[in-house]
Amino acid sequence: MAVRKADVVERVYARLKRRAIEFGFAPGEKVKEGVLAAEFGVSRTPVREALNRLSTEGFVTFVPNRGFYCRKVDTDQIAQIYAVRAALEVWAFRCACAATPEGDLAAFHARWGGKDVVAGFETLDIYDSRFHSGMAALCGNRVLLQELREIDEKILAFRSLELPDIRRRDQMLAEHGQILSALVSRDAAGGSAMLERHILNGAEKAIAAAGMKFGTPDRA
Which segments constitute the HTH gntR-type domain (predicted)? Predict the structure, then answer.
């Protein structure tokens, strides 16, 4: 059966997006279409179409007459993305405190309140992402969840850089417990303040970790 062009593009796009998200290309590195086409066993056309999509999503940059380049590590942009994430999650938290049925709050607490909950995830950054997205989902706003998913993709690499530190891990788990307690007690004011500090503190550590791995990040 012939493989549809759209399927080839989608497959190439998925592989390139994962690589771009995780900085499989070095920041600012030229992304060579011909090399990728040979690696994936496809023509340059699906590679170019996939890179165009990634360019609109901010994972690569297109420079006219020069080609595509991996996104750079931009300190200000990282901070701004985390700030938007904090604003959206705080709004979702307040909505969840006001309107989530008791049974759903109890189920969420049972799912995420156990001491060994982290053991059920392959990596700490996946656990962290699922905890935050699950809590935001309690507000029932699908548009907000889509925005948070897109934000999560843009900062995934930075979250994975800052979380492996054991002290950061213990701090994160303690803060999750405090936020969870505020949620089930419907403490919208106290919990949202903790959640905002938690996310923005993560931003500071992510920026520092990116600087250590990639060198001094750019500033816009």
Answer: 6-73
